[in-house]
Amino acid sequence: MFEPVNTHISLFLEKQTCASVCCADEQGNPYCFSCFYVFNSRDVVLYFKSSASAHHSSILEKNPQVAGTVLPDKLNILQVKGIQFEGELLPAGHQLSKKAAAGYYKKYPAALAMSGDIRTIRINHIKFTDNTLGFGTKIPWYREEQELNHQKKPQLG
């Protein structure tokens, strides 16, 4: 386990509900979709529900790399806030996907009535813009950097 994301990032992502996600097909053509999501701050992953027949599902099976954005559910043009992220879709059996369904259905119990599978995006980079902390404030987070810092710390026990 490594250091969690910045508190401002976690609080923002936990409050919002919808993300726009972009993937690229085999020819490099971009395709975007929107989804309701749940953020797991401990593992820094997003859970979302999708049907295997959705166009983005077939693209993601071949190229799991994604980028996306999260804006506030209620926009305030005087208080600009938003997330840009990069990551990858994890396979269904991945260790970080084990809690996906429980987390998703806790926030969206009505989704139990809809077909589809809960999928997991492992976030590798976040840029959070929050003008409420000062005009132009950007808070970055990098998984690789956090994992390297964790490995450098002396292990107790």
The percentage helix is 10-25%
What CATH calls the topology is Pnp Oxidase, Chain A
Sheet/helix structural class: alpha+beta
CATH superfamily: Electron Transport, Fmn-binding Protein, Chain A
Q: Compute the number of helices.
A: 4
SSE ordering:
HEEEHEEHEEH
- The total beta strand count reads 7
Mean pLDDT: 91
Q: What does the largest sheet look like?
A: 6 strands, antiparallel, barrel
Beta percentage is 35-45%
Please tell me the total number of domains. Answer: 1
Computed over alpha carbons, the radius of gyration is 16 Å
Query: What ranges have pLDDT less than 50 throughout 5 or more consecutive residues?
Result: none
Overall body shape:
globular
CATH architecture: Roll
Query: What's the N-to-C terminus distance?
Result: 15 Å
What is the CATH level 1 assignment? Mainly Beta
Short synopsis of the structure:
By secondary structure, this protein is α+β, with helices and mostly antiparallel strands. Helix content is 22%, strand content 37%.
Which tags fit this structure?
globular, single chain, 157 residues, alpha+beta, Pnp Oxidase, Chain A
Structural account:
The relative contact order is 0.21. Helices cover 22% and strands 37% of the residues. It is of the alpha+beta class and 157 residues long. It has helices at 7-15, 55-62, 100-107, 143-152; strands at 18-24, 30-40, 45-50, 65-70, 81-89, 117-130, 138-142. The chain is globular, with a radius of gyration of 16 Å. It has one domain: Electron Transport, Fmn-binding Protein, Chain A (Pnp Oxidase, Chain A, Roll), CATH 2.30.110. It has a 6-stranded antiparallel barrel with strand order 1-2-3-6-5-4. It is built from 4 helices and 7 strands, in the order H-E-E-E-H-E-E-H-E-E-H. The two termini are 15 Å apart.
